[in-house]
Structure formats: structure tokens, C-alpha cells
Amino acid sequence: MKFKLNFILFLTILFMPSFVTEANESVVPYSIEAVIPNNQVDQGSTYFDIEMEKGETQKLEVVVYNSSDEPITIEAQANSATTNSNGLIIYDAVDLVPHDSMSHPFAEIATIAEYKIEIEPQSQETVTITVEAPDESFDGLILGGLYFSQEADESEEDSGVQIQNQYSYALAVQIREAGNDNDVEPELDLLSLEAGLINHRTGLQTSFVNTAPTIIGGLEFTGDVYAEGSEEPLYTRTVKDFNIAPNSEFNFPVMFENQGLEAGDYVFKGTASNGDHEWSFEEMFTIEAEAAEEANDEAVEIEEEEIENEWMMPVLIGLGVLVVLLLVTIIYLLVKRRK
Asked: Residue limits of the WxL Interacting Protein host binding domain (predicted)?
């Protein structure tokens, strides 16, 4: 099982540069490298995967290289891992409020000596991170990340330049208690449902939480929305290779394909499975007429539905009859006048 978890971790959180915005094509001006410690579980990994004794304090080091011909300033942050709505484990949630099930958030046990580092051209600096393991025994994983981003150039900001190249790296830190081989079973719970607007578009926002200190990896995650009593889903969403960080809360939106909200009773059905574990969820929810009208007024790109009012057909038939009678009357009067 440890091999499987490490393999998933390697695929999903191996540090990579993240391009926040790009003004033009250019070379990334800096790079980072973890100094792998002796208590690394896998010496071949490029991220930190360490075992610590309870109550132990350890210093981790990351070398930051400036390969450009200009001085740069790098900001470093220690963040707890969380999960985004696409099933990616991420490390850039600076203001993350940890779920109650997270006993030891990485952001609270890791301290960076200097969070802002100035690096001269063609040189390097070492960032030191102090990690304090919990005093009590802990099962499973403490997962976090070291997030490095390049500070914007003040001269460019002052000159009014709006679009700049910003580059960031995330370096995973996985901590286990040395000698603790207790199995941890993943737990996935549905927290809430709310129909409304998601990024200005109609949909159902569902929230889930993994309450266990372990990664849930390789899931096929599906959510369906049904009208109450119907067996055919109105809307559906499926994401493969969905990964969930330990003790993390996340959203799984099901979009309504630019259709307006309609008042009524509905059922959400969800499944998540990876071959080793499977979860099923089902919960009713109601869309109130007032809430639907308000959301539809604010939504973008709502498709206009065909008018299907019950009175339209009788009205159209009636108008058709009147037109026919009018034509018959006109023809009758013309024929009579000629005689």
C-alpha cells in the first residue's frame, strides 16, 4: 500500500513550475531543488518524503537558483495541502482554513526562516524550513507544500505595466511518524449541496471532505442531478483520476450547461471509486422560485428555452380560425358585389 500511495503522490504533486500569467515567451528565471535529508523514505524522490519521531524538530533545505542576469526576489510560503474542484492536490492556498479533522496542519508545524529571499544574478540561496513533529503519536500523513513565487518588479509596477510574467513552484512535503505502520482507512463524506451560480453560471455546488490523514487517489468521481421521481439525469459530471489530499474539504460542481434554474425538488447522486474503495451519495435538495429567478437574472449565457405555455396552442388555433373566417367573409362580399 505504501508503494501505491507514493506512486500516486509522485504523479500528482511532483513540483512543477506554475505560470500565473504570461506576457510573452521567456525562460523561467529561477529554479528550486530540495536538499534530500537522511531520513527521506525514498532517496530517489525530488520532493520531501520523510519520517520523523514524535516531538522531533528538523530543518529542511531548498536551494533556489537565479539563472538570470538580473537580481530577483523570491517569496516562500509553507502551506497545508488541499484539493481543488478538478481533483488536483494543490499547495498555494495561503489562507486555507483547515478542516476540523486535520489535527496537525503543515502550515502550523513548519516555519520558514526568511520568507522573502533576494538572489543576485547567476547565484543561489538556500531557504531553511524548520518542521516540528507533533508531540503525540500520529497516524497516516501530514501533507503540505513549500510554495515559491517570484515577486513582481517594483519598477514595472510603477511604470504601469499590467501584465507580467510570474513564475511559481510547489514542492511537496510528506511527513510520517517513524515506526508507525498503522493502516489508515480513507473516509469520504458529503457535506452540503447548494444550487445557484458558480463563476456566474448556473449549477449545483457540492462539498465533500476526506476526514482521514491519507491520500485518496485515482478516483473516478461522478455527480448526477435528477428531477425528483425521474430516472434520467438532467445534468452529469465525471472526472477520472481524481485525487484528494488528507483531511481536505473540496467542491465538486455539477454545471447546468447554461440552462436556467427551475424551481422544484431534485436529487443529487454521486459515486467515487478507485478499485480499492467505493462511496455512494444521494441527497434531495429544493430550488425555490425566488432563488431561481434571482440566479437566472445574474447568470451569464443563459439559453432561452422554447415557450411551452398551455394556452399558446388554443390561441394559435383561435387566430387561425379567425383568419379563415375573415378570408371567407371577404370573398363572399366580393362575389356578392359583382352580382
From this structure: 159-296
Interatomic CA distance for residues 23 and 251, integer angstroms? 31
The gap from C-alpha 89 to its chain's centroid, in whole angstroms, comes to 8
Pull the grid cell for residue 334: 366580393
pLDDT tens digits for 223-278? 999 999 999 999 999 999 999 999 999 999 999 999 999 999 999 999 999 999 99
Burial class of 42 by CB neighbour count within 10 A (0 to 12, 13 to 18, 19+): middle
Q: CA separation (Å) from 70 to 31, 67, 99, 123?
A: 14, 9, 42, 10
Which one-letter DSSP state was computed for residue 160? T
Same fold, 2-177 and 188-298: yes
Listed in sequence order, the residues at least 6 apart from 224 whose beta carbon sits closer than 8 Å to its beta carbon are 233, 235, 236, 237, 254, 268, 269, 270
Cβ pair 198, 207 in contact under 8 A:
no
Q: Which of 224, 238, 190, 218 is nearest to 88 (CA)?
A: 218
Task: Show me where the domains of the chain are located.
Answer: 2-177, 188-298
Residue 323 three-state SS:
helix
Match 520558514 to its residue by C-alpha cell.
112
CATH entry 3.30.70.330 includes domain 188-298: no
**305, 306, 323, 330, 332 from 318: Cα distances, Å:** 24, 21, 9, 18, 21
Which candidate, 218, 169, 210, 240, places its Cα nearest to that of 12? 218
Closest CA to 152 of 141, 140, 160, 142: 160
What pTM was computed for the model?
0.81
Q: Which of 104, 96, 154, 170 is nearest to 131 (CA)?
A: 104
- Outline where the chain has alpha helix (H): 2-13, 106-109, 154-158, 289-298, 312-338
Strand partners, 281: 270
Q: Per-residue pLDDT tens for 128-143?
A: 999 999 999 999 999 9
